[in-house]
Structures are given as C-alpha cells and as structure tokens.
Amino acid sequence: MTEKPDYAICHAYTTLKSQDDLKFFVQLSCELTGFNEVDLYGTGQVLTYYQIITDYLDKKDAKLATLFSGLSSTLFSSQNETYLHKLINGHGQPAKVAASLIKLWYLGQWYNPDNANDTMIPSSQSYISGLVWTAIHAHPQGAKQQGFGAWSFPPLSEDQGQA
Amino acid sequence: MRQINHHEALSKHYQIIIVGSGFAGSILAKELSGKNYSVLVVEAGTGDALSFGQHLDYVDRYRTATIKIPNAPFPNCSNAPQPMETDVEPVPKGGVSAKGYFVQTGPYPFASTFTRRVGGTSLHWFGSCPRMVPDDFAMRSVYGVAVDWPIDYDFLQPFYEKAEREIGVSANVQDQQYLGIHFSPGYVYPMERIPQSYLDGWFSKGLANMRVDELGEPVMVRSIPQARNSIPNPRFDGGEGFTPKGAVGDPSIGQRCMGNSSCLPICPVQARYNSLKTLQHANVDLLTKTVVSKLDIDPDNGRIRGLECKVWRDDRSADFEAIYLKADTFILAANAIQNATLLLASGACKSSGQLGRNLMDHPAILSWGLAPEAIGAFRGPGLTSTLVNYRNGKFRRERAGFVLEIGNWGWNWPFNDPNDTTIRMIDEQHAFGRQLRDSLTDMVPRQVRIDMMTEQLPSDANRVEISPDWRDALGNFRPVLQYNVDDYSKQGMVFARDFGSKVFKHLGIADETTFDPSSYGYFDWKGNGYVWQGVGHIAGTHRMGTDRHNSVVDRWQRAWDHENLYVTGCGSMPTLGTSNPTITMAALCFATATRF
To answer: What region holds the Glucose-methanol-choline oxidoreductase C-terminal domain (chain B) (predicted)?
Structure first.
C-alpha cells in the first residue's frame, strides 16, 4: 500500500497557483455536482480537493482551465450544461478528469482517472462530506448521527430536500 | 481488568485461563472472577481493552476504508491473522483458495469472518439478539432431521435472561412471543424495543392483508431484539430498572442508539454492545499478543496441564517468545474455527470424531428492488424488524426454515451503495450536475433489500482441518476448510427467494435482483440460478451432546475427554435454527458459569 499524503493537513494554500485558479475549480465543481458554492465550501474540502486535482494534473503538465476552457463564467447556464454534456460524453482527458472530480465530491473518494483501482479516501472528513448523503436525504454512515428514533420518521419529500 | 505482560502472567498462579476476549471469553471472565476465581484472559491479537482513543482510531479507519467490509476498522495482524471478506473467491475444482487466512478446499468457500483483536468479533457484529424457537433444540425429534440438543428451551430460558441483561438487549416481550418462544412470568427486557424504521412500518402496512399461503396465516413482521441501547425499562428486574452501558473509556456517550447507521462494522458511540463493556468490569488479568499454539495434555488422565503459547511483539516481525502457562482449569473461547484449529493442533477431543465437523453458517439469499416511493433508505440501525413466519413449521422436514430480514440500508448489501449506484450513474449514464443529484435523490431513497437468512444443518463433511503444509507467520496452523451448502438449505433458499418476490409484488417493489454466475455462492436449481452469501454466524465445530461418542462437549460445554477443559462459543451449538447465534451462545456461557 502506498503511503497517502495527509490531506487533512492541507498544503493547498502554499501550492495555490492563484485565486483565479481556485475560483475556476470551484465553479467547475458546482457545474459538475449540481451543488452551489456555499454547499461546496461548507464541506471544508475545497482546498483539499483542489490540491488533489492539481497534483494529478501537474504530473501530466495539464491545467484545469485549459481542459475546460469552454466554460463560461455564468454559473449553471444552459450553455455550460451543453458544453459539459458534450465533453463528458466524449472519451478525452476532460471526460475522465470530470468523472473523477464528480466522484471525489460525491463520495469523498479519489479515483485516479487513469486507473480506477488506484483509489483513496483522503480523510474521515472527506468521507463524511460526500455530497451523495445530502442528495439521498440521509447522512454519512458512521457520522452525523440523526438522533434516537429519527429513522422512524418519514423520509424527506423531494420538495423538502431541495429547499 | 488489568492488562499485564507475560512476565507478570508467568509469575502468578491462576485458577482459570480463558483463551479469547470476545463474547464468550468476556462473559466467563466476569462471571468467574465474580466468584472469586483468579482468572487470566489470553488474547492472540493486539489492542488496548479500555482505550476510547483506540476506538476512535477504528472509527477513522472505517470512514477512510475504500471497501467497508466488517473487518475494515480492525487491522489484520500477520502474527494473529484473521479472515477477510475480500479474500473470499470461488474455490477452483480440485484446488484450494488460500489467498487469505483460511485455506479453502471447497466445493464452496466458507464466506464468513471473525476478528482477532481484544474484543474479538463482538467489535463488528450487528447486534441482533432473537432467541431460538423451542423446536430448534429438537430438530431430530420434531422434524426427523439433524440432531437434538442435549438441552431444551426451558433449560436455557433463565440463562437467556442473564445474557439479555449483560449484553443489554432492547425489545418488548409481547413482540417476541411467537412460534413457541416464551418468557418467565412478568419478564421484561432491560430496555424498550428500538424504534422500528419507517421502512418497517411501510412493510407492515403494505403486507397487512397478505397471507402466507402454505401456513394460511397473516405475515408477522416483528421488531427484532437488539443489543443497542434504547430507553431503559423501569419495570426491569422487579422494578429495579436498568442502566445502559455507554462506551468503554467514555461511558457518558452511547447511552442511546443515535442513528449512526453503521452498527456493522462499528458503532461510533458504542451504543451497540461489545464485549469490552463486560471485560472492563471483570476482576481479571489480560494478556494480549499471545497466541496459544497447543494444549499440553496429560496422557495418563487427559487433563490439560498447560498452554504452549507464542508471545509476539511487533506485527512487522515473526519473532516470538515461547511461554508455557499453567492453571487448574482452561476455557477455550476463541471462536468456533479457532477453537477447533487449536484442539486439532493439540490432538485433543478425539473420542467422538466430531471435532472440527458440522461447521455451519446461515447462507442467505437476497432480493433487492426499488419501492414506488421513498422509504428512507440509509437511516438508522441496519436491521430493526424481521418477517418471522418461516422460522418454524412442518416444512422443516423437507426444507430449511428462514427469517426474512428487512434491511434499512438500501443496496449497501450486496453492493457498496450508495457508492456503486453513484459511480454507475457517472460512468455509464454520464450523469453530472443537477441531473446526477436529482437521479440519486429519486432512486437511492427507494432502494429496498431483503435477505432470507436460511438454516444450515450440521454435516460431517463441513469441517475444519489442519495440515502441516499450511501455517501462519508464527508457525501456527491455519484453518483448512471444507464447506458445502446442501439441498435442504438450497431448497429453503429457493422457496425463500420466491416468497421474497411475492412480498415485493405485494408492495409494488420493482425487483432488480440478479444472480451472477461468477459469484462464489452461485448455484443452479431446476434450471434457475441463485446466489447464497455468508452472514458471519460461525458455529458447530465442537458440538454439545449427550455422550462422548456423539459430541465434543457436554451441556455445560465441558470437553468429554478432558475434565478440566471447557470449549465454549457458537461451536458448541448442535444446530443453528434461524437465530443470530450470539444471544444463545451468551446464554450457554452463563450456564457454564454455574458449574464453578
């Protein structure tokens, strides 16, 4: 087993290329996940995930802003949706990177875009912050306990869930 | 409890040595030390019995494990190795599968695992505590199959009560009075039943008018007794009440189940019982990282003179110090497979020829599907209710009984959900953004999984053996397993699967079940394919009986061949019924304690 870096102690501030770079990462993440900036920053994982994706791309001499250069700065526009839909349905590097980035946000688990068996969960906190738990109106198993007997309450309706 | 080193252990005389610190070992440690015996508990694995920090490390390991199997929180030690689910694979015809701790010779692999660490497998059990039904103890007399126990339900009844108190079981007596299960007058469980899940209620409502064809009776969906803390029952113990036991090392937490939805493998607040809650209050010494290799038997009288042990220090090295531990009486409580392996390695318990045989589990067949509306999957304890009609009935002459478990965690079993569904949506449907989020919101809360946990009868051919060819890092024998699932169980599962389909149809659940021919538990029945899976109920390798010719131990779990040796745990169970075996095994240990 290879030693994984301690992403809980994140060095992204020191490796941060520029605020624009980070801004782009967050916007792309919003488009790919369907969650907004407040949701994503609320996970506490933005810098960790930024570092993971940057580490990966650096080795390939690639840049996120180049891979997704067609993204406009308007959040959640139909133009962006069409653009990403096309990229993600393609077979190029952006499709693989996007898929790994979506999984990272949803599951708190990094899958190497070049080898899905090379995978890791950076920290407890990233597992707990997986967006999938919010999407399915549950809570991460083994964390964020809902309280005695909460499981006997009716599940959230879709309307409540999206409020 | 005091954790000591082997120098101190060697300098003292103990009346009793207990091998193993799981359910059986801890209960006996507490009971016997309570009777003023001097007791040493010897544990092969490592661990700090009283450390809450260590527990938090386990929780962290669980959260960051990419495959969340039952042993995920508990690291394997090469010097006291443990089986892992990830090592289970089909056994090649005529060959062996030996990539894990078990050496599997087939035809099927034995699919269940245990933990070798302070606390044993109590660290990762589910906590389901149903009693056995009375007919389970008399399968030969009542149904003409398998064997009878040397004891009956009524013998065990008072010991069930002791076990329910020690383990801290939450249930309501009126829910549990079915198929002959009965209680002493005025008995109440220590705590009120755990609230049933929304899904349980949805099942009960939806099945209210469904009849069980063959039996002509309404379906019975019952709350299952659970070893997780609930509201204490003030009427318990003649009005004395009950105080729930919180976490070891931090008892202020875990006084109630808080809905962490991860009972197995680990309850973060320890509202679910583990044996360290019992061991901590036992006035005993505990010696860890000490693997018993052999019992030293006096050839003249069969008494056990001592234990040959290997004390290891560091998992990265196979260096050990050989020590010899003496006592008046010895109790093996190391799990059905480890007990049998050690006894075989010692040339012990030979009279009956039954040692190592009759290895059992509950092969389970699953059905999964999508409910027409959200039923709240992935919330609460993993199992809060079961459908119990088929736990007993005349049909058991021909085919196995089963209990239908209503899973609260969607397709977490047999898949690694919600991960697998998410990954499939991303990789196969290329979903992203709002569409991905909405698809997950729509689908996952509708996931339903039931499993039909089926009885397996004892068989000579299902056995634990040892071979000089297969040893672990310290040179101790690895269990060599031969395992099959017979037609009695298969027929039960085929019926159960069909019944499960009827339940789904009645509830409007779209059945999504498929059985993969490459699965280790695949079988064909009249042209249709099915898959069974192991559920971790390892039993039967040193069964109890009426004499030294038909059994390894007597009703008190004392070895027929060695008067100062007790062999305890699920291995003593002659048959397994459809009950999760821990509560019965705990009751057997309370019975054993009365002999001292």
So the answer is: 458-588
User: Which of A35, A122, A135 is the closest to B441 by Cβ?
Assistant: A135
Number of compact structural domains in chain A: 1
Q: Which of B412, B356, B352 is nearest to B382 (CA)?
A: B412
CB atoms within 10 A of CB B424: 13
Side-chain half-sphere CA neighbours of A2 within 13 A = 8
On whether the CB atoms of residues B570 and B541 are closer than 8 A, the answer is no
Give the other-Cβ count within 10 Å of B207's Cβ: 18
In a domain, A81, yes or no: yes
pLDDT at A139 over 50: yes
For residue A3, being part of any structural domain is answered with no
pLDDT single digits (tens) B53-75: 999 999 999 999 999 999 999 99
Q: How many CB atoms lie within 10 A of CB B293?
A: 18
CA B14 to mean position of chain CA atoms: 30
Contacts of B262 in chain A (CB under 8 A): 141-142
- For residue A163, CA distances in Å to A50, B232, B432 come to 28, 37, 20
Contact between residue B62 and residue B70 where contact means Cβ atoms under 8 Å apart: no
pLDDT in tens, B81-116: 999 999 999 999 999 999 999 999 999 999 999 999
Burial state string for A28-42 with b = 16 or more CB within 10 A and e = fewer than 16: bbbbbbbbeeeebee
C-beta separation of B363 from B539 below 8 A: no
**Residue B264 CB neighbours (<10 A):** 21
Q: Which residues partner with B103 through β-bridges?
A: B480
Minimum CA–CA partner of B447 in chain A: A136
CB distance B246 to B252 below 8 Å: yes
**B111 residue type, one letter:** A
Beta-strand ranges (E) seen in B408-503 are 447-454, 463-465, 480-483
Whole-structure pTM value: 0.96
| DSSP, res B85 | G
Tokens of B272: 């679910």
Q: Give the Å distances, CA to CA, from A15 to A5, A8, B373.
A: 14, 15, 47
Q: Could you give the dihedral angle defined by the CA atoms of residues A28, A31, A32 and A33, in that order, rounded to the nearest 10 degrees? A: 120
Residue pair B560/B542 in contact (Cβ under 8 Å)? The answer is no
Token reading at B120? 């044993």
CB B520 within 8 A of CB B88: yes
ipTM above 0.90, yes or no: yes
Interface of A with B in 61-120 (CB under 8 A): 76, 81, 84-85, 88-89, 95, 98-99, 102-103, 106-107, 109, 119-120
pLDDT category at A143 given cuts 50, 70, 90 is very high
Is residue A55 classed exposed, middle or buried when 0-12, 13-18 and 19+ CB atoms within 10 A define those classes? middle
Please give the residue range of the domain that contains residue A129: 12-162
The pair phi, psi for residue B55, each rounded to 5°, is -60, -40
In a domain, A4, yes or no: no
| Dist CA B170 CA B415 (whole Å) | 29
Residue-level length of chain B? 596
Does some domain include residue A19? yes
The reply to whether residue A137 touches residue B374, judged by beta carbons under 8 angstroms, is: yes
Q: Which CATH architecture has domain B2-593?
A: 3-Layer(bba) Sandwich (3.50)
Residue B306, classed as helix, strand or coil, is: strand
Q: A72 by DSSP, 3-state: which?
A: coil
Find the distance separating the first CA and the last CA of chain B, reported in whole Å.
20
Q: How many residues comprise chain A?
A: 163
Q: Residue for token digits 């209960």? A: B27
